[in-house]
Specification:
The chain is of the alpha/beta class and 337 residues long. It has a single domain, classed as Metallo-beta-lactamase, Chain A (4-Layer Sandwich). The chain is 18% helix and 27% strand. The strands form 4 sheets. The protein has an 8-stranded mixed beta sheet. The chain has an 8-stranded mixed beta sheet with strand order 12-11-8-7-6-5-19-20. The chain is globular. InterPro entries: Metallo-B-lactamas, RibonucZ/Hydroxyglut_hydro. Residues 100-295 form the Metallo-beta-lactamase domain. This is Metallo-beta-lactamase domain-containing protein.
Length: 337
């Protein structure tokens, strides 16, 4: 779990970005476990204040709401032309069924923090952020894990890094667990060169200028992102494990993101739509958005079903989509495309 909050006394949580995980089939195989960091964005208010100023608000931009394979599925386009989702998403560039890898841009007091940049990051950023009111500059990156859908776009932020007056690109901090840091160093050795090596060429490569900042692999870790007023808390979990969580005494969640890969089909490491809804009924967030959705979920049809369900069970849940903008402050939570 990764908690983000302004540096004040915490009174209530705001946003939880969660990639649901389950137990693997072979519990004795350590390779079946993969460490991830569930991401939460939290806001706080001063104990001496009854409302938050606009400076304490957080803007969230969903850059990607799909699965690792993204939508439309290439295999589906080739082998299943009757799919109700993929052909439409392929033909319509503005379709809300067109979904990139899960990614979230957090804006707070003019500071931009990118949570995950997977295989589809470049396309998602161009689609969602250019042109728009979002300055196309990122100040920090947080990686939840080292799967392709979370980090394989790590070289693309070079185009949206801030520039230093004298040395070109400013260093972009990449916050991640130590294990994720080891993985991305192997996967992107040219982005994290060993400057003590004498075998490196002297030529300067036009790549992202990154610097890893690690949080612990075990236990709850708090860390600040330099230059921002946000503080993160990281709680590592394992991809595939069963967990017991005590939530009764915790502050209410204002906005929760939860994955829902399939309409009904069970999956070993992700929730289906019914399972996600059952989870939300137990947790009772004020507002929930579903992400990580595959091509069995049609935005128009299933969004309409969620609206009907809201009236029946009182859970305010919607399907997220690429380009969704959510404004979170003390008074209300507003969403817009």
């Amino acid at each position: 779990m990764l908690v983000v909050r302004p540096r004040q006394r915490l009174h209530r949580s705001a946003v939880l970005w969660h990639d649901a995980v389950r137990r693997p089939t072979n519990l004795q195989d350590s390779n079946a476990w993969f460490q991830v960091t569930t991401t939460a964005v939290m806001r706080a208010r001063s104990s001496h204040s009854t409302s938050m100023s606009s400076k304490s608000s957080i803007d969230l931009y969903v850059l990607g709401s799909g699965p690792s394979t993204s939508v439309p599925s290439i295999r589906c386009l080739v082998t299943n032309p009757n799919c109700p989702v993929c052909p439409e998403a392929h033909a319509n560039p503005n379709s809300r069924n067109r979904r990139g890898n899960p990614s979230l841009l957090v804006k707070h007091q003019g500071f931009h923090i990118l949570i995950d940049c997977g295989k589809t990051f470049r396309e998602s950023f161009l689609r969602c952020c250019v042109p728009s009111e979002i300055p196309p500059l990122v100040d920090a990156v947080v990686l939840t894990h080292s799967h392709a859908d979370a980090c394989f776009g790590l070289d693309d932020p070079r185009d949206i890094q801030r520039r230093a007056p004298s040395s070109g690109l400013a260093v972009l901090p990449v916050h991640c667990s130590r294990q994720t840091g080891r993985d991305i160093t192997t996967q992107f050795s040219y982005l994290f060169p060993d400057h003590t090596s004498t075998k490196l060429p002297s030529t300067v490569l036009w790549t992202s200028k990154l610097q890893q900042v690690h949080f612990n692999d075990t236990g709850v870790t708090s860390f600040a992102i330099q230059g921002s007023s946000l503080t993160f808390q990281a709680l590592p979990v394992w991809h595939g494990a069963d967990y017991m969580a005590h939530l009764l005494d915790g502050p209410p969640i204002d906005v929760m993101f939860l994955d829902a890969l399939h309409v009904s089909q069970s999956h070993p490491t992700h929730m289906s739509l019914p399972e996600a809804l059952q989870c939300l009924e137990r947790i009772q967030p004020r507002k929930a958005y579903l992400v990580g959705m595959g091509h069995s979920i049609d935005y128009s049809m299933h969004q309409a079903q969620l609206v009907q369900r809201r009236a029946a069970c009182g859970i305010d849940v919607e399907l997220a989509f690429d380009g969704l903008h959510i404004h979170v402050d003390e008074r209300a939570t507003d969403a817009s495309s």
